Amino acid sequence: MLNKPVVYKKLLGTAILAAVFTSCVTGQLGQNVSGQYRQGMVVCAYPDAAQAGLDALKKGGNAVDAAVAVHFALAVTHPQAGNIGGGGFMVYRSASGETNTLDFREKAPASARVDMYLDSSGNIKPDMSLYTHYASGVPGSVDGMYTAHKKYGKLKWADLVQPAVTLAENGFKMTKRLANDINRNRQEFIKLNPGKGYLVNAQDWKEGDVLVQADLGKTLELIRDKGRDGFYTGQTADLITAEVSDGKPIMTREDLRNYHSVWRKALVGNYKSYKVITMPPPSSGGVALLQLLKSVEKYPLHSWGFNKDSTVQVMVEAERRVYADRSKYLGDPDFFKVPVDSLLNAAYITKRMANFSWAAATPSTSIQPGTFVGYESDQTTHYSIVDREGNAVSITTTLNDTFGSHIFVKGAGFLLNNEMDDFSSKPGVPNMYGLVGGKANSIQPGKRMLSSMTPTILEKDGKLFMVVGTPGGATIITSVFQTILNVVEFDKSMQGAVSAKRFHHQWLPDQVDLEPEALDSTVVEKLSRKGYKFSKRGAIGRVDGILKTQWGYYEGGADPRGDDTKLGF
Ligand code: DON
C-alpha cells in the first residue's frame, strides 16, 4: 500500500522518459536516427525500382503489391537480371505467420530433348545452351506476378504495372554501373540481334544518360491491360514464337499458353531458436541452406568468431558435402523424386560431418554424394519487402547469365533467359557456374531446371525476423548462409551482415573462392597449411535483406557491391 505512490511515480517517470526518447529517435514517418523504419521497407537492385515499391506501400499496398511494382520496374531499370523473359521464386510469410512459396521458374519447351546440346560424338556444343535460341526456357515471371497478385494483392494490377510502363516509355537515368554493364556487352547485343538497336547507343553510354525502351513499354502496356494474357497469348506470344525458332518453332504458342507457376509448400527448418522458411525444389537453395545450417549448428561459431580459421574450416567442410549432394539428388520434384527428408535428416547430416578432420582439408575427390538408409529411389536479382502489417516477401528472379541469352524478342523489346544451361546437359560436365549434375537434373520437355536461388524468411519467437536472398549462381546458397550467420552468430546489423566479405566452396572445383580481403592473411596461412586451396575472385553475390529489430523497426541491408537501394517509411 505504502509503496504504491512510489511505484506509480516510477512508472510515470519511465513512461515520460520513454515518450521523450521515442520522439527524439523517431522521425515523423516512423524512421529513427539509424535509418530504421516502422511502416514498410523495400530493398532491391535499382533505385527507381525501390521507389516504385515504396510508392505502392505508401498507397496502402501490401508486400505482394510492392513486389509486383518492383518486379516490373526492375525489368526496365535492371535489364541485366530484372525481367519479364525469365523466372524466379517467391517466399511469402503473412503477418499472422502463414507461409507459402510460388515457383515461377522457367520450363523446358516441349521440343527440348535430353541430348539437345550434344553433338554426334556426345560432346557438348559450346555455348548452345547459353547464347542461342535454344537457350531459353518458357518464361515464368509474368505468370508468377499475376498469380501472386491474384491471391494476395490489394491494389489494382494496372496501377502496379504502370510505373514500369512510365520508366520504359519516358526513360530513366542510368547509373554508372548500368551504363558500363551495357557497354561491356555491346558487341554481343549487336551480334545476336542484327539490325536491331536494343540497348545499343552510337557512343558508349555514360552515367546520367536517359534510357528509353519504347518496344518494352508497349509490351508492358499489354501486360498492364490484359494481365498474363498480355504476354502468353496474342501479340507478345506471336513475337516470342517468331523469335524463338530456327526454321521450325523451338518455343511454341502451346508452350506459352500452358505455362503456369506453382504454389508449393514452404520448406521449413530450424537453426537454434530461429525458424527458417525457404524455397523447396526445383530450387536446391532451400534444401542446401537448411543442410548447411544444420551441419554447423553444434559448433561454437559465436565464440570462435567471424571468419576465424575454425569458423571458416567448418563452414567450408559443410559446403563441400552439401554441394556434392546437390549434384545427385536435386531436380524438379514434378519429374524426379527429390529425397528432401533424407537430406535433412539430423542423423544423416551428423554422419556427413563426422569424417572431417581438423588437421587437414578433406579432398573433394574423397567426397561423393551421400547415401541414406531407406532412400526411395554474374546475374540474377533479389528483392526483400515488408509492409505495415508485417507481411513479408522474398523474391529472387533471373535471366540466368547477365542479360540472359543477350537475345531480344524483336518488336517486344525484352531479353530472353538462358536458363536451359541450369540443366545438366551431360552428366558430370559443369555448367557456366561450374556445377555438375546428373539424372535428377537432366533435360526433359516441360521440366524445370534446377536452381540455386534461395529466397528465405526467418522467424524468431514466432515473429518475423529476417527477409533475405541474393543473386550469384552457385554462390547464392553460401552467401545466404553467411549472411544469416553474420546476424545470428556474429551480432552484425543487417547492413553489416550484407556488406561483410564472403567466401565460397562448392565441392567441385576443390577450392575456396575469396572476395578481396575476405579473410585475414593469418587465417589463409593456417588453412593453407592444412591443405585448403584458395582462389581470389571479384564480388560474390548482391544480398538484399531486411531485419526486424527487437524494437519493432525494419532495418535494411542493401548490397554495396551493386546499385542496391533500401527505402522505407
Ligand atoms: O537459378 C539459378 O541458380 C541460376 N540461374 C542463377 C543465376 C545467377 O544467380 C546469376 N547471378 N549472378
Automatic annotation (TrEMBL):
The active site is at residue 380. L-glutamate binds at residues 105, 398-400, 422, 451-452, 473. The keyword RNA-binding does not apply. It catalyses: glutathione + H2O = L-cysteinylglycine + L-glutamate; an S-substituted glutathione + H2O = an S-substituted L-cysteinylglycine + L-glutamate; an N-terminal (5-L-glutamyl)-[peptide] + an alpha-amino acid = 5-L-glutamyl amino acid + an N-terminal L-alpha-aminoacyl-[peptide]. Keywords: Acyltransferase, Glutathione biosynthesis, Hydrolase, Signal, Transferase, Zymogen. GO terms for biological process: glutathione biosynthetic process; glutathione catabolic process. InterPro entries: GGT_bact, GGT_CS, GGT_lsub, GGT_peptidase, GGT_ssub_C, Ntn_hydrolases_N. Cleaved by autocatalysis into a large and a small subunit. Gene3D superfamilies: 1.10.246.130, 3.60.20.40. The keyword Signal applies. Its EC number is 2.3.2.2, 3.4.19.13. Residues 1-18 form the signal peptide. One of its GO terms (molecular function) is glutathione hydrolase activity. Pathway: Sulfur metabolism; glutathione metabolism. Pfam families: G_glu_transpept. Belongs to the gamma-glutamyltransferase family. This enzyme consists of two polypeptide chains, which are synthesized in precursor form from a single polypeptide. PANTHER family: GLUTATHIONE HYDROLASE, GLUTATHIONE HYDROLASE PROENZYME. This is Glutathione hydrolase proenzyme. It comes from Mucilaginibacter terrenus. The gene is ggt.
